[in-house]
Amino acid sequence: MPLISLRSVSKRYDVGGNTVAALDDVDLSVARGQRIAIVGSSGSGKSTLLNVIGCLDTPTSGEYVLNGRDMSAQSGRRLARIRNAEIGFVFQSFHLLPRVTALGNVMQPLVYGGVSTQERRRLALAALTRVGLHDRATHLPPQLSGGQRQRVAIARALVTRPSVVLADEPTGNLDSSATRQVMDLLDALHREGQTILIVTHETDIATHCERTVELADGRVVRDERA
Ligand SMILES: Nc1ncnc2c1ncn2[C@@H]1O[C@H](COP(=O)(O)OP(=O)(O)O)[C@@H](O)[C@H]1O
Ligand SMILES: [Mg+2]
Question: Which of 14, 61, 88, 137 can bridge 162 by disulfide, Cβ–Cβ 3.0-4.6 Å?
Fold first, then answer.
């Protein structure tokens, strides 16, 4: 059974009387442990696809099954709970709380899991160690470099041990050396068996991945395995 299965998924927006299909009849099946690059020009639907898979958004039509659960049948609070347990999200602009320490940011997803503060701290410190930033635990995001911020965000994505890590242009705001660090980290996670979907513009990142899915106008126009 695939970890992720989309069948004929569409997402339509009504904008000033016109309907825009951000996703148009998308079929996609992702096995556990795969690392996939999602590519395509700006506006092709990459973020919408990731948001649907990450349960930040719901499709207008079609079927989405995540880890055996039919997500189209889930409503608000349940959807949020499943998202918290199953999904680790990494964004281009990090989305860290600026006045909260690195450790506090990484602890945040565990607040909803009924985990004691002491255990949250232990798990968050382990995740920060995993990304090589245990010595920055008490730093605030503005005191960290871009690459370090993104590694904190990756630690936050990992701390719940999610089924899948979704990264939307994770190196889009980073210089080449920080990009290298983040890609090496995602590489290592992939070797450990983590399922990862990466939206990217950069061809050298895409060629790194074993599978590339290209979108154009909300449709899958290429699905290639290296
Ligand atoms: N909330 C929204 N309302 C209206 N149109 C949207 C919305 N979100 C995305 N779109 C449209 O859907 C298409 C796909 O957007 P997006 O998924 O952000 O593309 P990408 O990430 O590939 O740049 C674009 O045409 C965009 O303008
Ligand atoms: Mg986008």
Answer: 88
Q: How many domains are there within the chain?
A: 1
Closest to 195 (Cα-Cα) out of 76, 83, 49, 67: 67
Structure-token match 């990450």, residue found = 54
Tell me how far apart the alpha carbons of residues 215 and 24 are, in angstroms, rounded to a whole number: 10
Q: Tokens standing for 53? A: 């898979």
3-state secondary structure of 74: coil
pTM of the model: 0.96
CATH classification of the domain holding 50: 3.40.50.300
Residue 226 · residue 210 · CB < 8 Å: yes
Sign of CA dihedral 142, 166, 223, 27: negative
Q: pLDDT per residue over 131-141, tens digit each?
A: 999 999 999 99
By DSSP bridging, strand 18-30 and strand 4-15 are: antiparallel
Give residue 144 CA to ligand 2 midpoint distance, Å: 25
Q: Determine which residue's CA is closest to atom 1 belonging to ligand 1.
A: 13
Q: Please say whether the beta carbons of 179 and 171 come within 8 A.
A: yes
Spatial contact of 127 and 156, defined as CB atoms under 8 Å apart: yes
Q: Give the distance (Å) from ligand 1 centre to CA of residue 48.
A: 6
